[in-house]
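Field reference: sequence -> structure
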Amino acid sequence: MRVSTLTDPADPRVHDLVGLTDVAARAARETAEGLFVAEGAKVIARALAAGYAPRVVLTEARWLPGIAEHLDGHDVEVLLADEGLLREVTGYRVHRGALASMERRPLPTVPEVLAGARLVVVLVDLVDHTNVGSVFRNAAALGADGVLVTPGCADPLYRRAVKVSMGAVLGLPWTRTGPDPLAHLVDRWATVALTPAADATPIAAVQLPDGPRALLLGTEGDGLPLALQARCDVRARIPMAGGIDSLNVAAASAIALHALRPA
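Structure field:
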């Protein structure tokens, strides 16, 4: 760990952390360059504990003691900056005071994520990073063993998703599927499509055989495609009251996971 003070926002050492508020540019750039950004001392610590290698760390001096012990043994540049310089580099006020660019790892295969799993979540084209992060946090908290995300789903390692998940995306096995998210969920897997449709089975009444099960969650607004729902073993709904037709997908995922998780 090499600690120095940053004085120039154009310093090439902070290239990984420039312009964090440009969602489209960052989403394209981070996957292409094999990096992701961990924000806050707690998330940085979890990323390091999960085995991700740091590329560069940018932090206010007061946050350094909280991350220095986790960086022990890493060959990494640690740059100290004040709040104003952090804003110049990133484009926003960094409330948690510390950022780290981390090396991505190759994703596992779908069979590797499914091996030994009893409950997985399948995210079908969710586009909101906050929702993706929230679902990962719910999945980790409620006993899911892994998450599958379709090609059209937002990046689980995008900064906002990692932050909202409280680092759950760093420890919970996940990977991207091919165009057909059900391709590997046949035979012994019981698949449950969550939908607000009135003709779906109330989630509390869903009866599943012993064995692994997968919960499918559709994109914000449109939900799961009807053709995909038709291929699942069960279409389940969360009964609503008060004139509300449905819940946010993250809130719905928590209820459904609690109802479906194996004993």
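Note: The chain is about 30% helix and 20% strand.
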